[in-house]
Predict the structure of Biliverdin-producing heme oxygenase.
Amino acid sequence: MSLRSVLRAQTADCHVEVDKLFGTFDLSDRQQYGAFLRAHARVVPAAENALEEAGIDRLLPDWPERRRTQKLLADIHELGDPLPPSLAPPALHGEAALWGALYVFEGSKLGGALLAKAVPDYLPSSYLTPQGPKSAMRIFMDRLGASNLDDPDAAVAAARDVFGLFLQAGQLELEAVP
């Protein structure tokens, strides 16, 4: 079974939970959209830095083009919202953990492109709009499929950890929205 198939099967429950939680945000409402972005800001910058510190550029040389932190922070700044405190980044030890975390981050871009349609034109949405190198998802999936990991469990654990961070962040922001 491919690593992609293993990740999909063993994190499906997490994916459903995250989709359900983030689906409760009304992205057409300025306040809730801001909370949605702040939830992501609790995870994305620190996690992207953790990916870099763990050597993501060895697996994806086009990593700098895939980063989304600057777009996320720019959207939050444009809304005039404060940045929330970051959650602790995931522990990413080894290639398997990198692939697992990337699986969540790259997949979230697909979801973001769908969610962007719900954001009114007068709100900033560069974070959710498709970005990265041309054919970025295909390139990622090809590389993920070509990875020969001895320990797919470590990839699954990292992916589940990242999904968990998004769940925690989303819950924190939903609790703060009046």
